[in-house]
Amino acid sequence: MTETQFAFPDQQKEPLNDAAHVRNAIARFNQVEDVSDAERDRAWQRILAAAKKFDVEVSERSWRELSHGGKGR
Asked: pTM of the full predicted structure?
């Protein structure tokens, strides 16, 4: 898999290879642990690009708009 096939490529977390995986990556975004805000910024850009590619509607403009109920947040 290439870097753009994961939201978090260094950890190989949250694959982005189809619409269902993109929706799942958004839903689980705040559950990813041990990543910096800068890594989250880059991951969010990859998610938005994949969402556009697979025609997934994303209402949030930033990952910071997601609910913060995940682990370590």
From this structure: 0.86
